[in-house]
Amino acid sequence: MSSTTLQPHQRELFGQPIGLYILFLTEMWERFSYYGMRALLVLYMTTETIGDDRGPGLGWTDKEALALYGWYTMLVYVMSIPGGMIADKLIGQKKAVLVGAIVLCLGHGVLVLTDVWAFYTGLGLVILGVGLLKPNISTMVGGLYKEGDIRRDKGFSIFYIGINLGSLLATLIIGLVVAEWGWHAGFGLAGVVMLLGLMNYLYGQKYLTQVGNFEYDKNDENEISYGQLFSKLFSSPKQLMIAIVLLLISLYGWYTLEWGYGLLFIFLTVVVSLMMMIYKELNTQIYKDRFLVLLISFIMVIVFWGAFEQAGGLMNLYTESKIDRVLFGWEIPTVMFQSLNAGFIIIFATVVASVWAKRKLKGKEASSLFKMALGIIIMGFGFLFMVFAAMEFERSGTSSMIWLVLAYLFHTIGELCLSPVALSFITKLTPVKYASLMMGVYFAATGLGSKVAGIVGESASDFGEYTVFLGILVFTVIIGSLFILILKPLKRLTHGAEDNERMMHTDETEGFELADPDINN
Ligand code: GLN
């Protein structure tokens, strides 16, 4: 077929569907607004109410601000579960992304106002907006490729560059805007940028006609609503017992910790119950096994983000107080070190993706599970440099910034082995009807990881940074290695979901062969 007879959604650019670039740009602007806002949040909350050059803040203590920050960054991702469910059963991913983008524009718009009610309302809207947009746009990327298409992993790597381009631009620009025009200009900029994302998405609809459409049919007897699924719990004694035990633990958590944790645990109990019921409902052993291995891989996800997310917390504070940040006579502001991760991603994303693609073509080990486990180990080794930094501090009262740069480099390579790969893996393993929900569960796992990171980070005030960094290094390397040890049985559970990936399209520039497009497992 010549390119002139192709429909817009069939057209390609650099060997990838054009729809990928539409989703890339939408997500880039969304991540700009998210990371821009995230960078300002704690600073705004802790600035005195009488204010400084940037205008008045909320006058909160560090502890209060960090507590809200922890809940906020967790909730944006946990809300991906309802966001995914709404897409699966009510409106489809494409509309969910649209509604999410509109809600995000409203949220950032409200944050321009200076009242406290506007602050809470704005954050609430951002949480809802991200919950609707983030998992579903990622599932849509997967939907651009047929089962077995080898371009999928690379597509996710490109998409991941978009995420980090947004994050990089935000961390570089938004601080300058706030310094010049104040807090609310920064919040406003996030809103304007999100509006660009929305417009780009609307413009790009013609390239996305084949993906993210609502496919749930209430009247189809093979379809089942989440409500029906959940109610089946009461006629499944084994699963009900597990759910009751989890509920009791949640209630215990409510009384011994704080009500927020109680609610979170109850929510997780509902999610686990739903997962058990989906597992039971899946009609072939292949689907059941794939679902199981996906859930097991989420353990790696929690471990990974639980360590990685020290970046914004403990490592950030360490940078501020213990790293010698002076370069050629200029003291680099602490926040600028946050751009290293996004910058390294942009530099290395395609390199890492190509390494994997080449390995795969040569028939060497390149399964997603292997990459994810290796990602944990590589990221874990990044903490070795933080251990060196802490040792240097003990000796000389300061740490060189090279340790930090090396740590972020390893963290980023680890992230590239795990994060885009995990997104792609989910879209390969999940039956289409649960695709958005499982993407939501994945993001919720990353959110839980962030919460764990906060708790681990806080423990540094009792044990010291050296011990915490060393502990993370040892723990992550052990967990990653354990997963590599059990790789074979785990891979068996995927039932070859990744074994048949082949070139499924012609790309004259690279001379790929045209494979049978109906290839299936
Ligand atoms: N940094 C990535 C993003 O913003 C991953 C975040 C996550 O999965 N928690 O999309």
Descriptive account of the structure:
This protein has 521 residues and is an all-alpha fold. It has a single domain, classed as MFS general substrate transporter like domains (Growth Hormone, Chain: A, Up-down Bundle). Helix content is 72%, strand content 2%. It contains 19 helices and 6 strands. The chain has helices spanning 18-46, 62-78, 80-91, 93-110, 116-143, 151-181, 183-203, 226-231, 237-256, 259-281, 285-308, 314-322, 339-361, 368-396, 401-429, 435-458, 460-463, 465-485, 487-493; strands spanning 12-13, 16-17, 323-324, 326-327, 330-331, 399-400. The strands form 3 sheets. It has a two-stranded antiparallel ribbon. β1 (12-13) and β2 form a beta hairpin. α1 (18-46) packs antiparallel against α7. The two termini are 26 Å apart. Residues 503-521 have low confidence and may be disordered. The structure holds glutamine. The site of glutamine (GLN) has 7 residues, from α16.
In the CATH hierarchy, what is the superfamily? Answer: MFS general substrate transporter like domains
Task: Give the class-level CATH name.
Answer: Mainly Alpha
- Portion of residues in beta strands equals under 5%
As a whole number of angstroms, the C-alpha radius of gyration is: 23 Å
The residue fraction in helices comes out at over 70%
**CATH topology assignment:** Growth Hormone, Chain: A
- Number of beta-strand segments: 6
Could you state the order of secondary-structure elements as H and E?
A: EEHHHHHHHHHHHHEEEHHEHHHHH
Give the cofactors and ligands: glutamine
Low-confidence stretches: 503-521
Strands side by side in the biggest sheet: 1-2
Which descriptor suits the 3D outline?
globular
**What is the residue-mean pLDDT, rounded to a whole number?**
86
Return the domain count.
1
Structural class: mainly alpha
Distance between the termini: 26 Å
